[in-house]
């Protein structure tokens, strides 16, 4: 028997999904408005997000500065959307999106800095 204060190695959860991926699902189900994930395994995370979204009957929409918003946004399925490549335009579209969805903003961190106007 181990004590609660003893560090423990992250063990895979049921179904072979890592503890981190299980935690991601818990955070999504808890409706956290923003989840920041740092990973070099982008495809693995996207696969998990897609699985969670399907289970929760939500759409998955991805954003990057090179593609804009892509995903199931009313006809823009997997097509580059130059109109939403600008981060502010993408955020406007996300705010107006009325259906249940998970938005994955890839490499968005440079745009999260506070900008002061002169």
Briefly say what this structure is.
The chain is α+β, with helices and mostly antiparallel strands. It has helices at residues 19-29, 42-55, 87-96, and strands spanning 59-64, 68-71, 101-105.
How would you describe this protein?
With 118 residues, the chain is of the alpha+beta class. 30% of the residues lie in helices and 13% in strands. It has helices at residues 19-29, 42-55, 87-96; strands spanning 59-64, 68-71, 101-105. Strands 2-1-3 form a three-stranded mixed sheet. Helix 1 crosses helix 2 (42-55). Mean pLDDT is 80; it is low at 1-16.
- The helix content is 25-40%
Mean pLDDT: 80
Distance from N terminus to C terminus (CA atoms, Å) equals 61 Å
Q: What is the chain-wise order of helices and strands? A: HHEEHE
Which sequence of strands runs across the widest sheet? 2-1-3
State the major sheet.
3 strands, mixed
Count helical runs.
Answer: 3
- Structural class comes to alpha+beta
Shape: globular
User: Which blocks of ≥5 consecutive residues have pLDDT under 50?
Assistant: 1-16
Number of strands: 3
**Structural Rg:** 17 Å
Bin the strand percentage: 5-15%
What's the SSE blueprint?
Blueprint: H1 19-29, H2 42-55, E1 59-64, E2 68-71, H3 87-96, E3 101-105
Parallel strand pairs: 1-3
Antiparallel strand pairs: 1-2
Main attributes?
alpha+beta, three-stranded mixed β-sheet, 30% helix
